[in-house]
Amino acid sequence: MPTNVYRIQGPDGTIPYQQYLINKSNDALVDIATGLMKDVRCDGRDISTHRNLCIKTGIVTQAKGSAYLECGGTKLICSVFDPKEVPNKVEYAKTGELQCEFKFATFSCRQRRGYTRDSEERQLCNELRRALEPAICRGEFANFEIHINVLVLENDGSVLATAITAAGLALMDGCIPMYDVIVATSLGIYKNKILVDPTYDEEILCLSRADGEENRGTVMLAYMKNLQQITEFAQNGSMDVNMFPEYVQTLINQNCKLYKMVISAARKDVIEYFENETQE
Amino acid sequence: MSLVSLNEAEKVYIIHGVEENFRCDGRSRQDYRPLELEMDIVSNANGSARLRLANSDILVCVKVEIDTPLPEAPKDGKVEYFVDCSANATPAFEGRGGEHLAAELSRFLSLAHSPVFNLSKLCIVPGQSCWKLFVDVLILECGGNLFDAVSLAAKAALCNTSLPNIVGTYEDGQNIDLQISDDPFDTKPLDASDLSVLVSLCKIGNSYVADPTIEEEICGAGCIVVSVTPKGNVTAVLKKGAGSFMPDTLNEIIMSGSHIGILLNKALNETLTQDMSSNVCKQQYGFLK
Protein backbone atom coordinates (compact mmCIF):
# COMPACT_ATOMS: atom_id res chain seq x y z
CA MET A 1 0.00 0.00 0.00
CA PRO A 2 1.65 3.26 -1.08
CA THR A 3 1.56 6.01 1.49
CA ASN A 4 1.92 9.72 1.06
CA VAL A 5 4.87 10.93 3.13
CA TYR A 6 3.70 14.53 2.98
CA ARG A 7 0.62 13.82 5.01
CA ILE A 8 0.40 12.84 8.61
CA GLN A 9 -0.85 9.30 8.76
CA GLY A 10 -3.22 8.11 11.42
CA PRO A 11 -1.80 5.61 13.87
CA ASP A 12 -1.60 2.04 12.58
CA GLY A 13 -3.92 -0.56 13.92
CA THR A 14 -6.87 1.58 15.00
CA ILE A 15 -10.33 0.12 14.54
CA PRO A 16 -13.36 2.22 13.60
CA TYR A 17 -15.71 2.05 16.58
CA GLN A 18 -18.69 1.47 14.25
CA GLN A 19 -17.60 -2.14 14.01
CA TYR A 20 -18.66 -2.62 17.61
CA LEU A 21 -22.14 -1.38 16.77
CA ILE A 22 -22.93 -4.11 14.24
CA ASN A 23 -25.92 -5.43 16.17
CA LYS A 24 -27.39 -1.96 16.32
CA SER A 25 -26.89 -1.26 12.62
CA ASN A 26 -28.38 -4.67 11.79
CA ASP A 27 -31.45 -3.70 13.81
CA ALA A 28 -31.64 -0.46 11.85
CA LEU A 29 -31.57 -2.40 8.58
CA VAL A 30 -34.37 -4.67 9.78
CA ASP A 31 -36.38 -1.55 10.64
CA ILE A 32 -35.86 -0.17 7.14
CA ALA A 33 -36.86 -3.51 5.61
CA THR A 34 -40.08 -3.78 7.63
CA GLY A 35 -40.86 -0.15 6.82
CA LEU A 36 -40.39 -0.81 3.11
CA MET A 37 -42.87 -3.66 3.17
CA LYS A 38 -45.43 -1.05 4.23
CA ASP A 39 -44.15 1.39 1.56
CA VAL A 40 -42.68 3.69 4.22
CA ARG A 41 -39.11 4.91 3.85
CA CYS A 42 -36.87 5.94 6.70
CA ASP A 43 -36.81 9.60 5.65
CA GLY A 44 -40.57 9.78 5.11
CA ARG A 45 -40.35 9.91 1.34
CA ASP A 46 -42.68 8.15 -1.04
CA ILE A 47 -41.15 5.05 -2.60
CA SER A 48 -40.83 6.68 -6.03
CA THR A 49 -39.77 10.18 -4.97
CA HIS A 50 -36.33 11.59 -5.58
CA ARG A 51 -34.69 13.50 -2.78
CA ASN A 52 -34.60 17.30 -3.01
CA LEU A 53 -31.76 18.74 -5.00
CA CYS A 54 -29.68 21.85 -4.41
CA ILE A 55 -27.87 22.93 -7.56
CA LYS A 56 -25.25 25.68 -7.64
CA THR A 57 -22.90 26.24 -10.56
CA GLY A 58 -19.74 28.29 -10.87
CA ILE A 59 -18.58 27.86 -7.29
CA VAL A 60 -14.92 27.07 -7.98
CA THR A 61 -13.54 30.27 -9.44
CA GLN A 62 -10.27 28.71 -10.58
CA ALA A 63 -11.97 26.08 -12.71
CA LYS A 64 -13.52 26.63 -16.14
CA GLY A 65 -16.77 25.12 -15.00
CA SER A 66 -17.93 23.78 -11.69
CA ALA A 67 -21.00 22.62 -9.88
CA TYR A 68 -22.04 21.86 -6.32
CA LEU A 69 -24.82 19.37 -5.99
CA GLU A 70 -26.72 18.29 -2.94
CA CYS A 71 -29.08 15.38 -3.12
CA GLY A 72 -30.45 14.92 0.36
CA GLY A 73 -27.42 14.03 2.47
CA THR A 74 -25.13 13.41 -0.50
CA LYS A 75 -23.02 16.46 -1.18
CA LEU A 76 -20.34 16.79 -3.82
CA ILE A 77 -18.31 19.26 -5.84
CA CYS A 78 -17.39 18.76 -9.47
CA SER A 79 -14.98 20.94 -11.42
CA VAL A 80 -14.01 20.89 -15.08
CA PHE A 81 -10.82 22.38 -16.48
CA ASP A 82 -9.93 23.74 -19.93
CA PRO A 83 -8.95 21.28 -22.63
CA LYS A 84 -5.19 20.99 -22.67
CA GLU A 85 -2.66 19.10 -24.68
CA VAL A 86 -1.91 15.57 -23.57
CA PRO A 87 1.63 15.50 -22.19
CA ASN A 88 4.17 12.99 -23.60
CA LYS A 89 1.88 11.76 -26.31
CA VAL A 90 3.25 10.55 -29.61
CA GLU A 91 0.19 9.44 -31.53
CA TYR A 92 -2.44 11.83 -32.82
CA ALA A 93 -5.86 11.14 -31.35
CA LYS A 94 -8.87 12.10 -33.46
CA THR A 95 -11.12 12.40 -30.44
CA GLY A 96 -10.37 14.25 -27.23
CA GLU A 97 -9.81 12.33 -24.05
CA LEU A 98 -11.47 12.62 -20.68
CA GLN A 99 -9.43 12.42 -17.53
CA CYS A 100 -11.72 11.82 -14.60
CA GLU A 101 -10.91 11.76 -10.96
CA PHE A 102 -13.39 10.53 -8.42
CA LYS A 103 -12.46 11.00 -4.81
CA PHE A 104 -14.25 10.49 -1.54
CA ALA A 105 -13.09 13.01 1.04
CA THR A 106 -11.50 11.13 3.95
CA PHE A 107 -14.37 12.16 6.22
CA SER A 108 -17.19 11.61 3.71
CA CYS A 109 -18.22 8.09 4.64
CA ARG A 110 -19.05 6.39 7.92
CA GLN A 111 -15.66 4.75 7.98
CA ARG A 112 -12.71 6.97 7.31
CA ARG A 113 -11.28 6.66 3.81
CA GLY A 114 -7.64 6.71 2.85
CA TYR A 115 -5.93 9.37 0.78
CA THR A 116 -4.89 6.96 -1.93
CA ARG A 117 -7.46 5.80 -4.44
CA ASP A 118 -9.00 2.45 -3.65
CA SER A 119 -10.60 0.02 -6.08
CA GLU A 120 -14.10 1.37 -5.51
CA GLU A 121 -13.00 4.90 -6.38
CA ARG A 122 -11.24 3.61 -9.50
CA GLN A 123 -14.37 1.79 -10.58
CA LEU A 124 -16.59 4.84 -9.96
CA CYS A 125 -14.08 6.92 -11.90
CA ASN A 126 -14.31 4.54 -14.87
CA GLU A 127 -18.08 4.60 -14.74
CA LEU A 128 -18.13 8.39 -14.60
CA ARG A 129 -15.83 8.59 -17.62
CA ARG A 130 -17.89 6.12 -19.62
CA ALA A 131 -21.09 7.99 -18.78
CA LEU A 132 -19.70 11.32 -19.98
CA GLU A 133 -17.75 10.18 -23.06
CA PRO A 134 -20.77 9.77 -25.37
CA ALA A 135 -22.25 13.11 -24.27
CA ILE A 136 -19.26 15.35 -25.01
CA CYS A 137 -18.40 16.42 -28.56
CA ARG A 138 -14.95 14.95 -28.33
CA GLY A 139 -14.23 15.59 -32.00
CA GLU A 140 -14.14 19.34 -31.20
CA PHE A 141 -10.88 19.11 -29.33
CA ALA A 142 -8.82 16.45 -31.04
CA ASN A 143 -5.58 15.50 -29.33
CA PHE A 144 -6.58 17.38 -26.17
CA GLU A 145 -7.81 16.19 -22.82
CA ILE A 146 -10.35 17.56 -20.37
CA HIS A 147 -9.94 17.07 -16.65
CA ILE A 148 -13.07 16.39 -14.62
CA ASN A 149 -12.68 16.15 -10.86
CA VAL A 150 -15.35 15.00 -8.47
CA LEU A 151 -14.93 15.32 -4.74
CA VAL A 152 -17.55 13.74 -2.52
CA LEU A 153 -17.96 15.72 0.70
CA GLU A 154 -20.70 13.63 2.21
CA ASN A 155 -21.88 10.24 1.07
CA ASP A 156 -25.50 9.39 1.73
CA GLY A 157 -26.20 7.03 -1.12
CA SER A 158 -26.65 7.31 -4.92
CA VAL A 159 -23.24 8.93 -5.09
CA LEU A 160 -22.38 7.93 -8.66
CA ALA A 161 -25.69 9.13 -10.11
CA THR A 162 -25.30 12.45 -8.28
CA ALA A 163 -21.72 12.76 -9.52
CA ILE A 164 -22.74 12.22 -13.15
CA THR A 165 -25.50 14.84 -12.92
CA ALA A 166 -23.06 17.26 -11.26
CA ALA A 167 -20.44 16.60 -13.95
CA GLY A 168 -23.05 17.33 -16.62
CA LEU A 169 -23.81 20.66 -14.94
CA ALA A 170 -20.14 21.51 -14.55
CA LEU A 171 -19.47 20.77 -18.22
CA MET A 172 -22.40 23.00 -19.15
CA ASP A 173 -21.07 25.74 -16.87
CA GLY A 174 -17.64 25.37 -18.46
CA CYS A 175 -19.12 25.80 -21.97
CA ILE A 176 -17.74 22.46 -23.14
CA PRO A 177 -19.62 21.45 -26.32
CA MET A 178 -22.02 18.60 -25.61
CA TYR A 179 -24.60 16.68 -27.60
CA ASP A 180 -27.16 16.78 -24.83
CA VAL A 181 -27.63 17.40 -21.12
CA ILE A 182 -26.72 14.33 -19.14
CA VAL A 183 -28.52 13.24 -15.98
CA ALA A 184 -28.42 10.05 -13.94
CA THR A 185 -30.54 8.36 -11.30
CA SER A 186 -30.15 5.19 -9.32
CA LEU A 187 -32.62 2.67 -8.00
CA GLY A 188 -32.47 0.35 -5.05
CA ILE A 189 -34.23 -2.97 -5.52
CA TYR A 190 -35.44 -4.85 -2.47
CA LYS A 191 -37.72 -7.81 -3.14
CA ASN A 192 -40.51 -6.40 -5.29
CA LYS A 193 -40.02 -2.79 -4.16
CA ILE A 194 -38.32 -0.27 -6.41
CA LEU A 195 -36.76 2.55 -4.39
CA VAL A 196 -35.90 5.66 -6.33
CA ASP A 197 -32.70 7.42 -5.21
CA PRO A 198 -31.75 5.16 -2.26
CA THR A 199 -29.95 6.51 0.78
CA TYR A 200 -26.75 4.97 2.16
CA ASP A 201 -28.61 2.67 4.56
CA GLU A 202 -31.05 1.60 1.86
CA GLU A 203 -28.13 0.82 -0.46
CA ILE A 204 -26.54 -1.38 2.22
CA LEU A 205 -29.85 -3.19 2.66
CA CYS A 206 -30.27 -3.67 -1.09
CA LEU A 207 -26.72 -4.95 -1.53
CA SER A 208 -26.84 -7.42 1.36
CA ARG A 209 -26.74 -11.01 0.15
CA ALA A 210 -30.14 -12.61 -0.33
CA ASP A 211 -30.66 -16.13 0.97
CA GLY A 212 -33.31 -17.18 -1.50
CA GLU A 213 -34.35 -16.26 -5.00
CA GLU A 214 -35.31 -12.65 -4.53
CA ASN A 215 -34.39 -9.50 -6.35
CA ARG A 216 -31.89 -7.32 -4.57
CA GLY A 217 -29.42 -4.76 -5.74
CA THR A 218 -28.90 -1.32 -7.18
CA VAL A 219 -29.26 -0.07 -10.74
CA MET A 220 -27.84 3.17 -12.09
CA LEU A 221 -28.59 4.69 -15.46
CA ALA A 222 -27.23 7.82 -17.14
CA TYR A 223 -29.44 9.22 -19.87
CA MET A 224 -29.51 11.84 -22.60
CA LYS A 225 -33.16 12.79 -22.88
CA ASN A 226 -33.36 14.44 -26.28
CA LEU A 227 -31.26 11.82 -28.04
CA GLN A 228 -32.90 8.99 -26.08
CA GLN A 229 -29.54 7.39 -25.44
CA ILE A 230 -28.36 5.49 -22.39
CA THR A 231 -24.74 6.44 -21.88
CA GLU A 232 -24.01 4.28 -18.85
CA PHE A 233 -25.78 1.43 -17.16
CA ALA A 234 -24.44 -0.22 -14.04
CA GLN A 235 -26.11 -2.88 -11.95
CA ASN A 236 -25.11 -4.79 -8.84
CA GLY A 237 -26.85 -7.49 -6.87
CA SER A 238 -28.90 -10.41 -8.08
CA MET A 239 -32.11 -9.85 -10.01
CA ASP A 240 -34.46 -11.51 -12.43
CA VAL A 241 -33.70 -10.62 -16.02
CA ASN A 242 -37.39 -10.11 -16.86
CA MET A 243 -37.57 -7.16 -14.44
CA PHE A 244 -35.00 -5.10 -16.35
CA PRO A 245 -37.39 -3.37 -18.80
CA GLU A 246 -39.42 -2.11 -15.83
CA TYR A 247 -36.31 -0.82 -14.03
CA VAL A 248 -35.02 0.88 -17.17
CA GLN A 249 -38.40 2.54 -17.77
CA THR A 250 -38.62 3.78 -14.15
CA LEU A 251 -35.10 5.18 -14.39
CA ILE A 252 -35.82 6.94 -17.67
CA ASN A 253 -38.98 8.54 -16.25
CA GLN A 254 -37.03 9.76 -13.22
CA ASN A 255 -34.26 11.08 -15.45
CA CYS A 256 -36.79 13.06 -17.48
CA LYS A 257 -37.96 14.75 -14.26
CA LEU A 258 -34.37 15.43 -13.27
CA TYR A 259 -33.66 16.84 -16.73
CA LYS A 260 -36.30 19.52 -16.23
CA MET A 261 -34.69 20.60 -12.96
CA VAL A 262 -31.22 20.71 -14.45
CA ILE A 263 -32.44 22.69 -17.45
CA SER A 264 -34.27 25.22 -15.26
CA ALA A 265 -31.12 25.68 -13.16
CA ALA A 266 -29.06 26.21 -16.31
CA ARG A 267 -31.62 28.67 -17.67
CA LYS A 268 -31.49 30.67 -14.45
CA ASP A 269 -27.70 30.85 -14.74
CA VAL A 270 -27.90 32.18 -18.29
CA ILE A 271 -30.48 34.83 -17.32
CA GLU A 272 -28.35 35.90 -14.36
CA TYR A 273 -25.31 36.19 -16.61
CA PHE A 274 -27.06 38.47 -19.07
CA GLU A 275 -28.60 40.59 -16.31
CA ASN A 276 -25.15 41.17 -14.84
CA GLU A 277 -23.80 42.08 -18.26
CA THR A 278 -26.50 44.67 -18.97
CA GLN A 279 -25.94 46.27 -15.55
CA GLU A 280 -22.27 46.77 -16.38
CA MET B 1 -5.59 -2.86 -25.86
CA SER B 2 -3.87 -4.76 -28.56
CA LEU B 3 -1.79 -3.80 -31.56
CA VAL B 4 -4.42 -4.53 -34.18
CA SER B 5 -5.25 -1.78 -36.62
CA LEU B 6 -7.94 -2.00 -39.24
CA ASN B 7 -8.52 0.19 -42.27
CA GLU B 8 -11.94 1.45 -43.30
CA ALA B 9 -12.55 -1.30 -45.88
CA GLU B 10 -11.83 -4.03 -43.35
CA LYS B 11 -14.17 -2.42 -40.83
CA VAL B 12 -16.97 -2.15 -43.41
CA TYR B 13 -16.42 -5.82 -44.30
CA ILE B 14 -16.82 -6.87 -40.64
CA ILE B 15 -19.85 -4.63 -40.07
CA HIS B 16 -21.61 -5.89 -43.21
CA GLY B 17 -20.82 -9.46 -42.26
CA VAL B 18 -22.43 -8.96 -38.85
CA GLU B 19 -25.50 -7.46 -40.50
CA GLU B 20 -25.84 -10.60 -42.64
CA ASN B 21 -25.45 -12.79 -39.53
CA PHE B 22 -22.28 -14.28 -40.98
CA ARG B 23 -19.08 -13.26 -39.23
CA CYS B 24 -15.50 -13.37 -40.54
CA ASP B 25 -14.81 -16.74 -38.92
CA GLY B 26 -18.08 -18.25 -40.12
CA ARG B 27 -19.99 -17.91 -36.85
CA SER B 28 -23.47 -16.50 -36.49
CA ARG B 29 -24.05 -13.55 -34.14
CA GLN B 30 -24.83 -15.60 -31.02
CA ASP B 31 -22.09 -18.23 -31.40
CA TYR B 32 -18.99 -18.70 -29.29
CA ARG B 33 -15.58 -19.73 -30.53
CA PRO B 34 -14.31 -23.17 -29.45
CA LEU B 35 -13.35 -23.39 -25.79
CA GLU B 36 -10.70 -25.65 -24.32
CA LEU B 37 -10.59 -26.25 -20.60
CA GLU B 38 -8.01 -28.14 -18.61
CA MET B 39 -8.28 -28.63 -14.87
CA ASP B 40 -5.82 -29.15 -12.09
CA ILE B 41 -2.66 -28.33 -13.98
CA VAL B 42 -0.73 -26.46 -11.29
CA SER B 43 0.33 -28.85 -8.56
CA ASN B 44 1.09 -26.22 -5.91
CA ALA B 45 -2.33 -24.59 -6.10
CA ASN B 46 -5.46 -25.83 -4.33
CA GLY B 47 -7.40 -25.47 -7.53
CA SER B 48 -6.45 -24.45 -11.02
CA ALA B 49 -7.84 -24.24 -14.52
CA ARG B 50 -6.54 -23.19 -17.87
CA LEU B 51 -8.96 -21.96 -20.45
CA ARG B 52 -8.34 -21.28 -24.11
CA LEU B 53 -10.99 -19.38 -26.02
CA ALA B 54 -9.65 -19.30 -29.59
CA ASN B 55 -6.54 -17.18 -29.01
CA SER B 56 -7.27 -15.97 -25.47
CA ASP B 57 -5.34 -18.03 -22.99
CA ILE B 58 -6.16 -17.72 -19.29
CA LEU B 59 -4.63 -19.52 -16.35
CA VAL B 60 -6.38 -19.27 -12.98
CA CYS B 61 -4.97 -20.64 -9.74
CA VAL B 62 -6.68 -20.65 -6.36
CA LYS B 63 -4.67 -20.76 -3.16
CA VAL B 64 -6.29 -21.03 0.24
CA GLU B 65 -4.91 -19.61 3.46
CA ILE B 66 -6.19 -19.11 6.99
CA ASP B 67 -7.18 -15.63 8.05
CA THR B 68 -9.30 -13.95 10.72
CA PRO B 69 -12.75 -12.88 9.51
CA LEU B 70 -13.76 -9.24 9.25
CA PRO B 71 -15.44 -7.89 12.41
CA GLU B 72 -18.56 -6.88 10.44
CA ALA B 73 -18.94 -10.38 8.99
CA PRO B 74 -17.68 -12.83 11.65
CA LYS B 75 -19.27 -15.87 9.99
CA ASP B 76 -17.93 -15.25 6.49
CA GLY B 77 -14.71 -16.18 4.78
CA LYS B 78 -12.85 -14.01 2.32
CA VAL B 79 -12.15 -14.08 -1.38
CA GLU B 80 -9.73 -11.88 -3.24
CA TYR B 81 -9.24 -11.63 -6.98
CA PHE B 82 -6.00 -10.61 -8.63
CA VAL B 83 -5.64 -10.28 -12.36
CA ASP B 84 -2.22 -10.08 -13.92
CA CYS B 85 -1.87 -9.10 -17.55
CA SER B 86 1.36 -10.71 -18.65
CA ALA B 87 3.43 -8.77 -21.18
CA ASN B 88 3.58 -12.01 -23.18
CA ALA B 89 -0.08 -11.51 -24.10
CA THR B 90 0.41 -8.28 -25.99
CA PRO B 91 3.16 -5.64 -25.96
CA ALA B 92 0.53 -3.15 -24.78
CA PHE B 93 0.63 -4.82 -21.36
CA GLU B 94 4.32 -4.11 -20.91
CA GLY B 95 5.31 -2.22 -17.77
CA ARG B 96 2.21 -0.72 -16.21
CA GLY B 97 0.21 -0.97 -19.45
CA GLY B 98 -2.14 -3.72 -18.33
CA GLU B 99 -2.75 -2.32 -14.87
CA HIS B 100 -5.91 -0.46 -15.76
CA LEU B 101 -7.53 -3.47 -17.42
CA ALA B 102 -6.38 -5.76 -14.63
CA ALA B 103 -7.92 -3.53 -11.94
CA GLU B 104 -11.20 -3.32 -13.84
CA LEU B 105 -11.34 -7.07 -14.42
CA SER B 106 -10.63 -8.03 -10.82
CA ARG B 107 -13.07 -5.48 -9.43
CA PHE B 108 -15.84 -6.55 -11.77
CA LEU B 109 -15.21 -10.23 -11.11
CA SER B 110 -15.54 -9.72 -7.36
CA LEU B 111 -18.71 -7.62 -7.87
CA ALA B 112 -20.22 -10.28 -10.13
CA HIS B 113 -19.48 -13.10 -7.71
CA SER B 114 -20.30 -11.37 -4.41
CA PRO B 115 -24.14 -11.62 -4.58
CA VAL B 116 -24.04 -15.39 -5.22
CA PHE B 117 -20.87 -16.55 -3.45
CA ASN B 118 -21.89 -18.07 -0.13
CA LEU B 119 -18.89 -17.07 1.98
CA SER B 120 -20.24 -18.72 5.13
CA LYS B 121 -18.96 -22.02 3.71
CA LEU B 122 -15.44 -20.72 4.24
CA CYS B 123 -15.93 -20.22 7.98
CA ILE B 124 -13.87 -22.40 10.33
CA VAL B 125 -14.50 -20.94 13.79
CA PRO B 126 -16.95 -17.98 13.75
CA GLY B 127 -15.22 -14.76 14.67
CA GLN B 128 -11.84 -16.47 15.00
CA SER B 129 -10.64 -18.04 11.81
CA CYS B 130 -11.79 -18.56 8.26
CA TRP B 131 -10.45 -19.61 4.89
CA LYS B 132 -9.27 -16.93 2.55
CA LEU B 133 -9.24 -17.72 -1.15
CA PHE B 134 -6.72 -16.00 -3.39
CA VAL B 135 -7.92 -16.24 -6.96
CA ASP B 136 -5.00 -15.36 -9.21
CA VAL B 137 -5.79 -14.84 -12.86
CA LEU B 138 -2.96 -14.79 -15.35
CA ILE B 139 -3.64 -13.64 -18.89
CA LEU B 140 -1.14 -15.47 -21.06
CA GLU B 141 -2.50 -14.59 -24.47
CA CYS B 142 -5.04 -12.06 -25.55
CA GLY B 143 -7.42 -12.84 -28.39
CA GLY B 144 -10.42 -10.70 -27.55
CA ASN B 145 -13.32 -11.22 -25.16
CA LEU B 146 -11.18 -11.35 -22.03
CA PHE B 147 -14.09 -10.81 -19.61
CA ASP B 148 -15.88 -14.01 -20.64
CA ALA B 149 -12.73 -16.10 -20.76
CA VAL B 150 -11.52 -14.89 -17.36
CA SER B 151 -14.87 -15.50 -15.66
CA LEU B 152 -15.22 -19.01 -17.11
CA ALA B 153 -11.69 -19.91 -16.07
CA ALA B 154 -12.21 -18.43 -12.59
CA LYS B 155 -15.42 -20.39 -12.08
CA ALA B 156 -13.77 -23.59 -13.29
CA ALA B 157 -10.80 -23.06 -10.97
CA LEU B 158 -13.07 -22.37 -7.98
CA CYS B 159 -15.10 -25.51 -8.74
CA ASN B 160 -11.81 -27.41 -8.87
CA THR B 161 -10.69 -25.99 -5.50
CA SER B 162 -10.72 -28.25 -2.47
CA LEU B 163 -10.22 -27.14 1.11
CA PRO B 164 -8.05 -29.19 3.50
CA ASN B 165 -10.06 -30.93 6.19
CA ILE B 166 -9.80 -29.64 9.74
CA VAL B 167 -9.15 -32.54 12.09
CA GLY B 168 -9.69 -30.70 15.33
CA THR B 169 -9.71 -27.38 17.08
CA TYR B 170 -8.26 -26.81 20.51
CA GLU B 171 -9.28 -23.81 22.51
CA ASP B 172 -6.65 -22.40 24.77
CA GLY B 173 -8.19 -19.36 26.42
CA GLN B 174 -8.42 -16.73 23.67
CA ASN B 175 -6.30 -18.62 21.17
CA ILE B 176 -7.64 -21.32 18.94
CA ASP B 177 -5.33 -23.99 17.67
CA LEU B 178 -6.34 -25.60 14.41
CA GLN B 179 -5.15 -29.02 13.47
CA ILE B 180 -5.24 -29.53 9.74
CA SER B 181 -5.09 -32.90 8.09
CA ASP B 182 -1.60 -33.55 6.71
CA ASP B 183 -2.86 -35.89 4.01
CA PRO B 184 -2.97 -33.86 0.78
CA PHE B 185 -5.87 -35.98 -0.52
CA ASP B 186 -7.96 -35.55 2.64
CA THR B 187 -9.88 -32.54 1.34
CA LYS B 188 -13.43 -31.44 0.75
CA PRO B 189 -14.38 -29.75 -2.52
CA LEU B 190 -15.62 -26.19 -2.55
CA ASP B 191 -19.10 -25.90 -4.02
CA ALA B 192 -18.92 -23.07 -6.51
CA SER B 193 -21.51 -24.22 -9.05
CA ASP B 194 -23.82 -21.25 -8.26
CA LEU B 195 -21.27 -18.68 -9.40
CA SER B 196 -21.99 -16.47 -12.36
CA VAL B 197 -20.18 -16.22 -15.68
CA LEU B 198 -19.77 -13.07 -17.73
CA VAL B 199 -21.21 -12.67 -21.21
CA SER B 200 -19.95 -9.83 -23.39
CA LEU B 201 -22.18 -8.57 -26.14
CA CYS B 202 -20.65 -6.08 -28.53
CA LYS B 203 -22.89 -3.74 -30.48
CA ILE B 204 -21.83 -3.54 -34.12
CA GLY B 205 -23.98 -1.56 -36.52
CA ASN B 206 -27.61 -2.24 -35.66
CA SER B 207 -27.10 -5.67 -34.14
CA TYR B 208 -24.94 -7.20 -31.44
CA VAL B 209 -22.58 -10.16 -31.34
CA ALA B 210 -21.55 -12.56 -28.59
CA ASP B 211 -17.90 -13.41 -27.98
CA PRO B 212 -16.36 -10.60 -30.06
CA THR B 213 -12.87 -11.00 -31.49
CA ILE B 214 -10.35 -8.16 -31.15
CA GLU B 215 -11.20 -6.95 -34.65
CA GLU B 216 -14.91 -6.90 -33.86
CA GLU B 217 -14.26 -5.08 -30.58
CA ILE B 218 -12.56 -2.31 -32.56
CA CYS B 219 -15.53 -2.02 -34.97
CA GLY B 220 -18.09 -2.06 -32.16
CA ALA B 221 -19.68 1.08 -30.77
CA GLY B 222 -19.90 -0.28 -27.26
CA CYS B 223 -19.99 -3.48 -25.32
CA ILE B 224 -22.26 -4.68 -22.50
CA VAL B 225 -20.91 -7.29 -20.10
CA VAL B 226 -23.65 -9.18 -18.24
CA SER B 227 -22.94 -11.48 -15.33
CA VAL B 228 -25.37 -14.42 -15.39
CA THR B 229 -25.98 -17.13 -12.78
CA PRO B 230 -26.89 -20.72 -13.80
CA LYS B 231 -30.55 -19.86 -13.17
CA GLY B 232 -30.41 -16.88 -15.51
CA ASN B 233 -30.40 -14.14 -12.87
CA VAL B 234 -28.28 -11.10 -13.57
CA THR B 235 -25.78 -10.14 -10.88
CA ALA B 236 -23.89 -7.28 -12.48
CA VAL B 237 -23.85 -5.24 -15.68
CA LEU B 238 -20.97 -3.21 -17.05
CA LYS B 239 -20.68 -1.02 -20.12
CA LYS B 240 -17.42 -0.92 -22.03
CA GLY B 241 -16.40 1.49 -24.74
CA ALA B 242 -17.49 5.00 -25.61
CA GLY B 243 -20.83 4.22 -27.23
CA SER B 244 -24.36 4.74 -25.98
CA PHE B 245 -27.47 2.61 -26.31
CA MET B 246 -31.16 3.04 -27.01
CA PRO B 247 -33.33 1.79 -24.10
CA ASP B 248 -34.89 -1.00 -26.21
CA THR B 249 -31.51 -2.20 -27.46
CA LEU B 250 -30.18 -2.32 -23.91
CA ASN B 251 -33.11 -4.42 -22.71
CA GLU B 252 -32.73 -6.74 -25.66
CA ILE B 253 -28.98 -7.15 -25.08
CA ILE B 254 -29.47 -7.97 -21.39
CA MET B 255 -32.21 -10.49 -22.24
CA SER B 256 -30.13 -12.34 -24.79
CA GLY B 257 -27.07 -12.08 -22.52
CA SER B 258 -29.02 -13.92 -19.83
CA HIS B 259 -30.11 -16.55 -22.37
CA ILE B 260 -26.53 -17.13 -23.57
CA GLY B 261 -25.30 -17.14 -19.96
CA ILE B 262 -27.63 -20.02 -19.03
CA LEU B 263 -26.31 -22.09 -21.95
CA LEU B 264 -22.70 -21.20 -21.12
CA ASN B 265 -23.13 -22.15 -17.46
CA LYS B 266 -24.73 -25.43 -18.49
CA ALA B 267 -21.92 -26.26 -20.89
CA LEU B 268 -19.32 -25.47 -18.23
CA ASN B 269 -21.09 -27.59 -15.59
CA GLU B 270 -21.31 -30.52 -18.00
CA THR B 271 -17.61 -30.26 -18.79
CA LEU B 272 -16.73 -30.09 -15.10
CA THR B 273 -18.80 -33.16 -14.16
CA GLN B 274 -17.29 -35.03 -17.10
CA ASP B 275 -13.85 -34.07 -15.88
CA MET B 276 -14.66 -35.25 -12.34
CA SER B 277 -15.94 -38.63 -13.48
CA SER B 278 -12.97 -39.40 -15.72
CA ASN B 279 -10.46 -38.48 -13.08
CA VAL B 280 -8.46 -41.72 -13.08
CA CYS B 281 -6.74 -41.95 -16.43
CA LYS B 282 -6.72 -38.38 -17.62
CA GLN B 283 -4.12 -37.27 -20.08
CA GLN B 284 -2.47 -34.00 -19.13
CA TYR B 285 -1.46 -31.63 -21.88
CA GLY B 286 -0.41 -28.60 -19.89
CA PHE B 287 1.09 -25.84 -21.99
CA LEU B 288 2.54 -28.06 -24.68
CA LYS B 289 -0.57 -28.61 -26.71
TrEMBL record, chain A:
Sorted UniProt keywords: Cytoplasm, Exosome, Nucleus, RNA-binding, rRNA processing
Keyword hit for Transcription regulation: no
InterPro entries found in the cross-reference section: ExoRNase_PH_dom1 (IPR001247), ExoRNase_PH_dom2 (IPR015847), ExoRNase_PH_dom2_sf (IPR036345), PNPase/RNase_PH_dom_sf (IPR027408), Ribosomal_Su5_D2-typ_SF (IPR020568), RNase_PH (IPR050080)
Domain Exoribonuclease phosphorolytic: 51-177, 180-209
Family under the similarity heading: Belongs to the RNase PH family.
Locations listed in the record: Cytoplasm; Nucleus
Name of the protein described by the UniProt record: Exosome complex component MTR3
A GO molecular-function descriptor: RNA binding
Pfam families referenced in this protein's UniProt entry, alphabetically: RNase_PH, RNase_PH_C
UniProtKB/TrEMBL annotation, chain B:
InterPro entries: ExoRNase_PH_dom1, ExoRNase_PH_dom2, ExoRNase_PH_dom2_sf, Exosome_comp_Rrp42_subfam, PNPase/RNase_PH_dom_sf, Ribosomal_Su5_D2-typ_SF
GO molecular function per UniProt: mRNA 3'-UTR AU-rich region binding
Sorted UniProt keywords: Cytoplasm, Exosome
GO cellular component terms, A-Z: cytoplasmic exosome (RNase complex); nuclear exosome (RNase complex); nucleolus
Family as reported in the entry's similarity comment: Belongs to the RNase PH family.
PANTHER family according to UniProt: EXOSOME COMPLEX COMPONENT RRP42, EXOSOME COMPLEX EXONUCLEASE RIBOSOMAL RNA PROCESSING PROTEIN
Protein name (database record): Ribosomal RNA-processing protein 42
Organism in which the protein naturally occurs: Aphis glycines (Soybean aphid)
Lineage: Eukaryota, Metazoa, Ecdysozoa, Arthropoda, Hexapoda
